[in-house]
Amino acid sequence: MSHRIFEAIRAGLGFLTTIPVGFSLNGLEDLANNMYIYVVIGAFIGFLIGIIGLALSLLPNANVFLQSAIIVVALYSITGFIHLDGLVDMGDGLLKHGTMVERRKVIKEPYVGVGGIAVCVISFLLLFVGIISVRNVLLPALITAEISGKLSMVEIAAFGKATHKGLGSLFSERSTPTTFVIALILAFLVSFICLSWKGVVGLLSATILASGLLKLADESFGGISGDVIGSSNELGRVVALIAISLIR
User: Fold this and answer.
1) Are 172 and 224 within 8 A, CB to CB?
2) Buried b (16+ CB within 10 A) or exposed e, 181-200
3) Rg of the chain, C-alpha, whole Å
4) pLDDT of 146 strictly over 60
5) 140-173 burial string, b = 16+ CB within 10 Å, else e?
6) Which partner from 71, 100, 132, 185 sits 20 to 30 angstroms from 4, CA to CA?
7) 147-178 tens-digit pLDDT
8) Is the Cβ–Cβ distance between 155 and 112 less than 8 Å?
9) Directed axis angle between helix 64-79 and helix 37-57, to 10°?
10) Could you give the count of Cα atoms lying within 13 Å of 196 in the half-sphere of its Cβ?
11) In terms of DSSP H, where are the helices of 96-137?
């Protein structure tokens, strides 16, 4: 493994999780140049959360609702709230009536409005129910859901145009359709290994949602930002879980 790829993986762990591996700006640039690594990090996160979920299922007095709630807490303890913050900001921006410039201004403001609160609550509810719905295939479903969310981020970055300079533009300017194809192949293989075609359907559901989110961002904000990329992770994960739960 080359030094650059190693630094990209370390930066991925440091940026996408709360694991204190430490990473530099150069490492973050390496990650942006190899964004398909998001899928690898997603598989790792899903595996960790899935193991926690399996351990909880062994507790004799823990019902499925309590297990699901603890899994949600564990998920955000490991991943942090950086992408959820993006979802909240985007929700506020979408609720704003006005021009694209005014909507982008709302996204950058520090306060949280009703739009952000609403999408956050809905996301939590769907995630909670989604985890309960896949309890019979919890480990492979959580792995698939996490790689689906990460693939959604790669898709947004690869095909979106950043509205301004920032963390989002760092990834969007360095990601290409080829980056997405590599990430898609990796994600396809892992999801198929995990849940056969059911996993692939979950994965593709997330990519379709990301396409819609990309179009919505273009129409509402004139392009993408780090908040839009982060939102795709939260929404992609939830959509994948729901899609998996609906297939028997």
Assistant:
1) yes
2) ebbbebbbebbeebbeebbb
3) 17
4) yes
5) bbbbbbbbbbbbbbbbbbbbbebbeeebbbbbbe
6) 185
7) 999 999 999 999 999 988 888 888 999 999 99
8) no
9) 150
10) 3
11) 100-108, 114-133
